[in-house]
Design brief:
alpha/beta, Rossmann fold, 12 helices
Length: 337
């Protein structure tokens, strides 16, 4: 059995697909499973014990004849029994269509015309279903198509990461710590810096027992300068903005006491490792993309406009109205229980 997973990005979506990888391996333990992943996120899957081969996709592939030919050669080097499009966008649909596979599977309501490239179109999925559940449902239907018709579990399998993530420790860890994750790809998901600072200040009592690590991408220059300012101002705060690889970030989260995060990829890593998590939500839906395993608390403002799923907003009331005191209380309850 040869299976190809198409899930290019983003980080959180890839992590939310890992339980489906575990499910495939459970029902087809001898299967060769390959995965097409975006170049920016391949590290989180590198040397994964369940993945035979990673096919690296970059945004330039469809615009460079040489890169496209090389990618297509790698893609078509195997005759897959099934290709599963977990992404559901035009580029993933094209990749699925170009593969040499008996079954090319996706949902009929996947976006950007991607279902045109499938020869097996599943009925439309419920858009309010959590992403992890949606991917599991797609996987279950694939398993049925491949002939495993009995005893399909409804449980979400534990995700599995590359073994070095489980086996490594970070040298700079001196005492128990908390991880705070302020940034996301959408600016509308950000909790204001002023709220974060007030929250950090409120955590002074926790700073006696825990270090606080701030994380984020180096591409956010304002985040970097703000985090360094917090590091100078509060002796229990350390900035790791732009200083960690994806695997280091996963290790950091894995060994943390608790995580406080906006709706972003590292929040899903926290779920995957069942770390106690306070998730701050505004424009997006926790029912669709919130924490999904372990102990967690979702904090959101009860506004009729939320969730709106907008990437731009002039008011950002949904984030502004979340109070630092409420987040602190939720964090304390998770740590104590």
């Amino acid at each position: 059995m040869k299976v190809l997973i198409v899930k290019l990005s983003a980080l959180g979506d890839i992590v939310q697909t890992l339980p489906s990888l575990s499910l495939l391996k459970k029902y087809f333990p001898e299967a060769q499973i390959d995965w097409v992943v975006d170049k920016r996120n391949f590290e989180i899957l590198e040397n994964h014990p369940y993945i035979n081969r990673l096919l690296i996709f970059s945004k330039n592939i469809f615009f460079s004849l040489g890169e496209f030919k090389n990618f297509l050669k790698d893609l078509r080097a195997q005759e897959y029994n099934v290709v599963i499009d977990y992404q559901g966008l035009l580029k993933s649909g094209i990749i699925t269509g170009l593969s040499r596979a008996e079954y090319k599977i996706g949902f009929s309501n996947h976006r950007e015309g991607s279902p045109f490239f499938y020869n097996v179109k599943l009925p439309p999925y419920n858009k309010d279903l959590h992403a992890v559940r949606r991917y599991i449902f797609l996987t279950q239907k694939t398993i049925e198509i491949l002939g495993k018709l009995e005893n399909l579990s409804e449980d979400i399998p534990d995700p599995v990461f590359p073994l070095e993530i489980y086996n490594q420790k970070l040298e700079f860890i001196k005492k128990p710590y908390l991880v705070f994750i302020p940034s996301a790809r959408w600016k509308t998901k950000w909790w204001p810096y002023s709220h974060w600072e007030k929250f950090i200040k409120l955590c002074k009592d926790l700073g006696k027992n825990f270090d606080i690590f701030l994380t984020g991408s180096l591409s956010e220059l304002k985040l970097k300068s703000w985090a360094e300012e917090m590091e100078k101002k509060y002796i229990y705060v350390y900035s790791f903005v732009g200083k960690l690889s994806l695997k280091d970030l996963a290790i950091l989260i894995k060994d943390s006491k608790a995580v406080v995060s906006v709706d972003t990829g590292p929040m899903h890593i926290a779920s995957a490792f069942k770390r106690p998590t306070v998730a701050i939500f505004g424009p997006t839906s926790p029912e669709r993309t919130g924490p999904w395993a372990g102990k967690f608390k979702v904090i959101r403002a009860p506004l009729p406009c939320s969730p709106c799923f907008k990437k731009k907003c002039k008011e950002l009331k949904c984030m502004l109205e979340i109070k630092p005191e409420e987040v602190k209380k939720a964090l304390e309850e998770l740590i104590e229980n």
